[in-house]
Amino acid sequence: EVQLVESGGGLVQPGGSLRLFCAASGFVFSDSAMTWVRQAPGKGLEWVSAVYSDGRTSYADSVRGRFAISRDNAKNTVYLQMNKLEPEDTAVYYCFHNGTRGQGTQVTVSS
After folding, report:
1. Per-position DSSP letters for the chain, written without gaps between them
2. Whole-angstrom Cα distance, residue 106 to residue 54?
3. Angle, vertex CA 101, rays to CA 11 and CA 27, nearest 5
4. 75 phi and psi, to 5 degrees?
5. Nearest-angstrom CA–CA distance, 91 and 56
6. In the chain, how long is the greatest CA-to-CA distance?
7. What is the pLDDT of residues 40-83, one digit of tens each?
8. 2 CB contacts (<8 Å, ≥6 apart)?
């Protein structure tokens, strides 16, 4: 059974940083692309970033240059380092694999 557990969210002031974690199990993590998506209040899901099995990364225009995705195959974990956070980044952040997502972690950017 695929399981994804996100953590690391919280309340941060504009310009601050957070690091999100997604612990994965139930599949061959090292062979898998992993994705972060987010859902802001009252809005649909927005793709944020992905890291592929070969280490390549991709980002939405809205976060490129501020966010960095990475993975540790030894720990079956994917990370999202978020810097220079803006109020518009406020959302529940989900880790996705092959159509399955975790419970999400809330990120709130507010002064």
Report:
1. --EEEEE--EEE-TT--EEEEEEEESS-GGG--EEEEEE-TTS-EEEEEEE-TTS-EEE-TTTBTTEEEEEETTTTEEEEEE-S--GGG-EEEEEEETTEE---EEEEE--
2. 29
3. 125
4. -110, 5
5. 25
6. 41
7. 999 999 999 999 999 999 999 999 999 999 999 999 999 999 99
8. 24, 25, 26, 27, 97, 98, 100
| Tokens found for residue 29 | 């993590």
Instruction: Compute the C-alpha angle 11/17/20, nearest 5°.
Output: 80
Cα–Cα distance measured from residue 22 to residue 101, given in angstroms and rounded to the nearest whole number? 10
> For residue range 10-20, what is the model confidence (pLDDT) as tens digits?
999 999 999 99
| Average model confidence (pLDDT) across the chain | 97
The single-letter code of the amino acid at 101 is R
Distance, in Å, from the CA atom of 91 to the CA atom of 77, rounded to the nearest integer, reads 21
